[in-house]
Write a structure and sequence with these properties.
2 domains; alpha+beta; elongated
Length: 207
Amino acid sequence: MRPIHLLLSGLLGCLLAGPALAQTDTILRSDGSEVRGRVLTISPLALTYVPVLAADTLRLAATDVFLVRYANGTREVLHPVAPPVAVPPDLTGGLLTGLSGPERFQRGQTDAATHYRDGDVFAGSMTATFFLGPFIGLVPTLAIADAPVQARHLHPPALVLLRDQDYGSGYQAQACRAKRHHAWAGYATGIALDFLLLGVIAASASR
């Protein structure tokens, strides 16, 4: 009779649990596991629920819950899963492997701040301003500052890095910024030399 008793107990449990399961909510946790029960409250900090065939109220941290699927078929997403960040292909022979687009752009800016050198910009702006004066010298300085950086002046750590679009954009942006800075520094130096020359001429004339 014992096997029959166990079988009847199992069938009775299934009959009792069947309606309960049909009327319960499903809580999908962030780790992929599911919890069945009746959801009572949802707040920004926690979710409370009553498990199946139990009377105790349990609590889950809101950050641990991804979605609640209610018994009536509706759903409520608590914490949407962010799409994975796309990592662009590495065209640099492994030099930028694992870096996202913004990280490659930042890497280009950092490298340009260290490696970009174009002394002709400073010298050209200074010379034009010194010989033409601060007013006329402003014209060539503007032209020098706004002209795009030529590839031969970039001097990246490795030429292959410029194959990457994000890295190249960051490098170019920083190089253009530095180029403008050098041009206006040359302009200011040219004006200073003009005033110095005028001072020397004035001092010589007063003797």
